[in-house]
Fold each of these.
Amino acid sequence: MGRIHICVKRTFIFVCVLIGIISTLLLAITLFGHGYFHQSEEIEEILPGIVVLYVLEAATLVLSIFGVYGARKEKKWAVVLFSVGMSLASLYLFVECVNGYQSKHEMEELTREEHLAMMPLSGANQTDLEGLYNMQTNFKCCGLVQGYQDWGTDIPISCLCSDEDSTDFKCVAPGNNTRFVIHYHKSNSSEDDDHKGLMDENMLVYEKPCLPILISVERSAISLGIGIFVALTALWDVGVVLAITILCQMRRKVDVPPVIFTSQPPQYRELCDTAECLT
């Protein structure tokens, strides 16, 4: 029984340390992401989620410290605090995973509607164009739905397929009535430079549109996030089960009556036979 208690105790301490390390890494990633999106226009929308992550990660980090302390010092209140806190955190994360899975299709439809609202791309505002240029450069795509045809007669230079990309990505030749437009920031060039064309019949553009690729990447990111949260929930549940096991062992240890050993021989009286006692 003592070996089982030690094994459970060591496993519980290991799980608590692992939870603390993961919480610290997630806290650092959240802090980095907060700093990265601090100047972005989307910060107001994602700020409540960032605050929730701060609270959840800090709470699990503190609870893991209480768990290690309670197991090593055999403090019942610390183990109880760990089990209750991690149970609540696990329940909250499980609910968020279910909500995230249910809203995955809604988020995909919202992304599709937001980008289709930019059509026609020739009339999109400067902020949307900046995002489209970056997306085309990163995803090696052109346009949103119908490829380079979404840009009409003016195709941006971000759709241009280089010699290296032509071997890894499908590229096509645009029509004869199209011309490539070099995009410059307004602070670095004049309005005429923003519409300077590169006329070359040998130029190729990316064939695939960007919207399906963007939705696929978003779907993969959501699935990855849900998978990570499910794994964290399972790890926290393991910690809760081990904490309850340790509490049960502590209770049994308290209920066992103490055994007292003494070095003095017991006092007894020698009994005699009936015949000897009568004489």
Amino acid sequence: MFSISLFLLLPYCTRQTSDVIIESTPASSIGGVIQTELEKTVSLVCTLQSGTHDDKELVWLRNKAAVDLKDGNKENRSSVCISPVIIEDEGATFTCHLKSNASNKASVTLNVTYHTDISGLEEVTVEDGESLVLQCHMKANPMVTSVTWKLNGSLVDLLTSSFIITSDGITSKLQINKVQRNLHEGLYQCTATSPVYGERSKSFQLTVTEKTLKFPLMPMIAGLVVVGLTALLAIISRWRKIAQCCK
């Protein structure tokens, strides 16, 4: 029983060996992790506790990069405010330490939760017979548990309608190698499901147009130039003959 109790107390004692402590709003867990969300505010206060220190200046680091502090916010007590919290703050570690002794420190890490950023309606136009790729960005924390694709309210048919769905964990793609109006035109919907935030969707209104006949532009221009020059030379030659007859 004694050995178990000592083991449980070890993390607490280890955190108290430093004269530097960090208090946060919202509060951190025992492991120094602060749970927060996008657009929220996180306040950190670093305090130098009891002890004899010739240098009482404190330094803040964000992922090992120095945080710029104003005068008056460095000695004995120093604060940092993260507002608003952004996606790039996910996993960021903030460390406060004595300038004269970097080993005398404390750290906290942000765990920023957010849903995938998909919404709205996008108009898409493609020619009959062309290829098409629709994309839904599904990056989120925690990760989404599922992504579904629907066409006109029904799950896309991967067997009979030439659809290919791929995902790399960040982006889900719906691909059609050869679009056919009777099979593929309509309203597509991509839905991502989060264990925390529920469902979010993005729609794509696909319009399939008739295939247009495409001509190579440069050969056409070259041909027109040749025809134009030939006609011009013919006219000049004709006028010369007329002029000679009139003399």
Amino acid sequence: MAITSWIRTFPLFQYFIAWTQELFMSVLKTGPVPQHVAFVMDGNRRFARRRKLEVREGHSAGFESLAHILEMCYQVGIKVVTVYAFSIENFKRPTVEVDALMEIARTKLLQIIHHGDLADRFGISIRVLGQRSMIPPDVLAAIDKSTEMTKKNTTAILNICFPYTSRDDIATSMREIVTKSEKHELDPETIDESLLEQNMYTKDCPPLDILVRTSGVERLSDFMLWQSHQNCTVEFVNCLWPEFEPWRFGSILLKWSRSKAVEFRKREMERDQKQL
């Protein structure tokens, strides 16, 4: 283990890793690229327990992993990334942990404000989706600053679901529709699935292509249930979120790209047969 760590310090080794990553990115760009991916970032607490760390340190490690994954997403051309940062259900956790999560969120958002190189480099617009009324004032101030600072960026979007549940997302959409109906802004007869989608938090985003959950747990935990119900690839990965390295996500992207290429070729063959 010590020898491996020592080898990693060699400039030639670091150059080889950087060259390999760049080559891998180039390969990913040649195929179909998803427009919208989402992550359930699960496993921060277990990561901390296994390493005898404070829970706060596990969540911090999770934010560092997120930074690496986001960079990869935007490098390959993914337009929208949505992350499950905090569930409304998380308020049931111990107060100390909730306060720590809120402080980490505030700190990381302030880092984006003061050192927004990632947002600037990829033209990322930051959006926070969820119940604002549940967010502490100091965290809300950091959210407003980060969204204001990046609102003119139009190349890519980072949706931070905080605090969020899919059930609340759907219920909020329904309340919006009822309000508009009561104000005679729409005809109740026009209410359908499309109208529901148009009033959800992700209304301005392309359809969800890939949803990834780490930690080996195979459930969605009330995250983007509506958005993932059709034409969405769901991947359950058996590693903790802080251990979710770019190469793991790269393999998911390659798998998705191959499947889309096969679907495209199949449609082309069916079209050619019809023309005969």
